[in-house]
Structure formats: C-alpha cells, structure tokens
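Notes, p. 3: input format for complexes.
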Amino acid sequence: MTTSSLNLSGRVAVVTGASRGIGYFLARELAAAGAHVVAVARTVGGLEELDDEIKAEKAISGKGEATLVPLDLTDGKAVDRLGGAIHERWGKLDIMVANAGVLGVIAPLGHVEAKVFDKVMAINVTATWRLIRSLDPLLRLSDAGRALIMSSGAAHSARAYWGPYAASKAAVEAMARSWADESKNLPLRVNCVNPGATRTAMRAQAMPGEDPSTLPHPSEIAKTIARLASPEVTETGQIFDVPSNRFVRYRMPE
Ligand code: NDP
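Output follows (254 residues plus NDP):
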C-alpha cells in the first residue's frame, strides 16, 4: 500500500514527539491520510508549525486536522488527563504513536550521571508506559486500534557507550510485546518500529561527525511508518524495521 492509498478518515491518532523530527512528519502523513491528529510535545512553536502545515494541506485535499497538546510526558498526571480529554471528545482512540524520546548521553556506563540515566528512563520508558495506561482503554474501543512504539536498532546491538538509550529501547520493546499479548483477542494491534538512522536532531546529537545529507529525511521514513497505522495491518507484538522494510518477527505465546 502507498501512503496515498492510506485512508484514515474518521480516525483519531495521538502522536507524541510531534514538534520535530520523525514525529512531526508522521503526524503530517497521518493527517494527510485523513486522521485527526492529537499532536503532543513540549515545544509550542514546533506544534504550531505542524498545525499550519496540516491546515494548508487540508485547504487543498480537504483532509486532516490537528489538536495541539503542549505537554511534558514526564508529567504523569497530565498524561492521564490526555486520555480523559480524548474520551470526552471522541469516546475512543484509533492510533497511538509513542514516538517521543531522548538519547541522553553517549558515554561509558560508569561515566553516565544519575540524573541523565533517570531522564532517559523517565521519557523513553516510564512516560511510554503511562501513555499506554492512559490510552489503552480508548484503543480497545476502536474497531481497529493501532499502537506504534518507537524503538531503535540500539535495543539489539551491543554498541559501546549507548547503554542507557539501548536499555530504554529494549524495555519498551518488552513492554510492547506484553501489551500485544494482553490484547491479542481484540482488534488492537501493537508493534514497535525501528526507523533506522534518520536525519533529525537526535541523530545529529548521537553522531556529530556524520554528514546528515547521507541519511534519509524524516518525511521519507514517516511515509513507511504511517502505513503501519492502517486498519489493514494484521501483525502484533512485532518490530517493523524500516531500513529493511519488513517485520522482524517474535514468537508470541500460544
Ligand atoms: P528528535 O530529537 O528529533 O525529536 C524528539 C521528539 O520527542 C521531539 O518532538 C520532542 O519534543 C519530543 N520529546 C522529548 N522529550 C519530551 C518530553 N519530556 N515530553 C514531550 N515530548 C518530548 O528525535 P527523532 O525524531 O530522531 O526520534 C523520534 C523517535 O525515533 C525517538 O523515540 C528515537 O529514539 C527514535 N529513533 C530515532 C532514530 C534516528 O536516527 N533519528 C533512530 C532510531 C530510533 P519537545 O522537545 O518539543 O518536547
């Protein structure tokens, strides 16, 4: 399926980390396919820019809308309120993309400051769990709930100095598999995504010596990821690897 044939009309999608990078372009793709995107991040300027783009696209195609939610995902009570607000307005949620994340620091484990380690875990792991806790009841009410959780190749590679980030991504993958198994008898499908190296601020922080023009632009990556939000996707508990354009399969319990 191409993104142009992706039809998400009438679907409500939460995208975290929508103020820049992969989340920004993913929110645009989902809106272009007709979804109402609830765009979450802290930077109001980035969210407003997204809203302008979605409005401009809608003026041409008639499709897509955004609701902006400036929010720090480490504020657990605010994440809880998000679920309540979505329930009040739409009574369900169709798509959740837990994309927001931080790298922390690239350093030997013994040199990582405790507050940096805690921040990586708070945003990448605890906030993702809190989002699941808040939105799972709403996704269960959708006829084709789709949850995508952004992981990384770092979850599987044994790469020196990436310890906190790698551990956080391995943790969300484990959480996603549990959630997928909990919901396997529902229309809800839960998958992780490895976007691969992408031209964003996070990648530049991780690899300052790299020429960004050698990397895929997040708008390209977003087209592939958006397809995973389609009601047609049947896989659950898997990781979609964008660079190889395929699911890497885990054995789910019988
Ligand atoms: P960016 O740094 O470009 O964007 C990160 C997003 O997360 C921003 O929108 C930021 O918004 C949001 N965010 C961070 N902290 C918080 C917070 N406390 N509350 C709310 N929002 C927050 O990252 P990428 O686009 O590169 O990465 C997106 C995802 O893809 C991440 O999970 C990353 O780990 C993963 N990934 C990226 C790769 C790459 O090469 N780029 C490779 C593999 C995985 P704001 O600051 O406005 O709050």
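The longest helix spans residues 114-139.
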